[in-house]
Amino acid sequence: MESTDNTAPVVGAGDPSTPAGEGASSESGESAGTEQRIFKAATEVFARKGQAGARMREIAEHAEINPALLHYYFRSKSQLYEAVFAHGFKQFMGGLGQSLKADLDFEESLRTFVHGYIDYIHTHQDMARLMLNECTCGGPILERYLTAAVAKRDEMPGLMMEDRIVAAIESGEIRPVDPQHTMLTIVSSCLFPFVALPTVRIFHPEAADDFEAFVEGRKKHVVDLLLSGLRPAGSAE
Amino acid sequence: MESTDNTAPVVGAGDPSTPAGEGASSESGESAGTEQRIFKAATEVFARKGQAGARMREIAEHAEINPALLHYYFRSKSQLYEAVFAHGFKQFMGGLGQSLKADLDFEESLRTFVHGYIDYIHTHQDMARLMLNECTCGGPILERYLTAAVAKRDEMPGLMMEDRIVAAIESGEIRPVDPQHTMLTIVSSCLFPFVALPTVRIFHPEAADDFEAFVEGRKKHVVDLLLSGLRPAGSAE
DNA sequence: AAACAGTTTAACTATTTGATCAAACTCTAG
DNA sequence: CTAGAGTTTGATCAAATAGTTAAACTGTTT
Question: What is the ipTM of this complex?
Answer without folding.
Answer: 0.88
